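Let's practice the habit of predicting before peeking. Look at the sequence and jot down your guess about where helices and strands might fall. Then scroll down.
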Amino acid sequence: QEQVVESGGGLVEAGGSLRLSCVASPLSLSIADMAWSRQAPGKEREFVARINWISGSTNYAGDVKGRFTISKDNAKHTVFLDMKGLTPEDTAIYYCITKPHFGREIWGQGTQVTVSS
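Done guessing? Here is the structure:
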């Protein structure tokens, strides 16, 4: 069964850092790229960052560029989101998305990130 599982969320003070991880399975899954999105309370879901599985090229939303870094471990089918300089505006549920070469996107259940002021 294809699935994506996030981890690493939690409570952090403003200015702090956090690392999110996401594992896609099974290992036979042919991945095109992986991405992170987030949804804050009362707001629509928004794109955060994306990484191409082969080239490693990345894209970021404007308000996280320079603060967040997306990276990957191809062998472990894992993508990371390193977040620094967190602000209360970064409080949201963070979702990991895997886009396979074939088939639909696979979304995780999300992990909560809460930044206290």
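How did you do? The chain has a mean pLDDT of 96.
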